[in-house]
Amino acid sequence: MPRADGPVTARLEADDAAHLIAGRWAWGSGVEHSDWVMMPVFCDGPPLIRALVPASEVILHDNWHTLGMRGTGSCDYELDDVFVPDRFAIDLLGPQHMRGGALHRLGLPGYVINEHGSFAYALGRLALQTMSEAAIEKKRGYLGAVSIADRQVFQRAIGQSTIRMNACAAGMAEAIEAMFDSAAEGPPDPALVTEAQAVAVWCTDEAIDVVSGLFRYAGGSAVMLANDMQRILRDIYTVQSHLMVTDAVYERYGRVVLGLEPGGGLP
Predict the structure, then answer these.
(1) Tens of pLDDT along 158-182?
(2) Superfamily of domain 102-257
(3) Matching CATH number, 3-91, of 2.60.40.10, 3.40.50.2300, 2.40.110.10, 3.50.30.40
(4) pLDDT tens-place string over residues 186-244
(5) Which pLDDT value is given to residue 191?
């Protein structure tokens, strides 16, 4: 999901037929391969619109040089006073979606919660698989070396980490199912949206801890770029930087649990 970076403005023309948009956004995953680009914009009319613009009118910045997730090509992109017809500007807080089912009624952040939690879970699972397969052959020490799999401390780590990832799968499935069910006939329950997002944050935190713990057993070869474990480690530390899985969501969910706010909405 793109994140606004710096001033992002939309000025509504006098005839109410077009928006004049200038701004710059970050984390534009896949934008270099797109024919059309969509960006969130705050404006004076509808408070939040999502503008759809031909890729030919978008300025791309080659700045996605990152710790991890390099294949997403999530570079910055920019509009320099581009006219967007009103029919290509979606009011995100406007009328209820009439088609597309529960998924399209989730809105933000509900629509993207599942992918963030699930991807973090997948990285944790991949780390477990990678280390389980390598542990039999992997030996550490100069004299009398034994395989990692024969060390009780690793056996405990792999067993406990597997249980933790199983718990993430169960927690995500329960929270996402409840959120989707609530969107079956109309807008989702805001409290369930915030709960699902908090679970996605928790899955991310668990995956970070599991991957980091297992990486300690991977040995010196894991620092080489050809090793899968270093890529998994870099990717999980990159995805945890996304606004959708900020730990501030825990605070918001706590307010929901305490009855201080209804939940839902962007972080």
Answers:
(1) 999 999 999 999 999 999 999 999 9
(2) Butyryl-CoA Dehydrogenase, subunit A, domain 3 (1.20.140.10)
(3) 2.40.110.10
(4) 889 999 999 999 999 999 999 999 999 999 999 888 999 999 999 999 999 999 999 89
(5) 97
Phi and psi, residue 50, nearest 5°: -120, 110
What does the pLDDT average to over 101-115? 87
Q: Where are the domains of the chain?
A: 3-91, 102-257
Predicted structure pTM score: 0.87
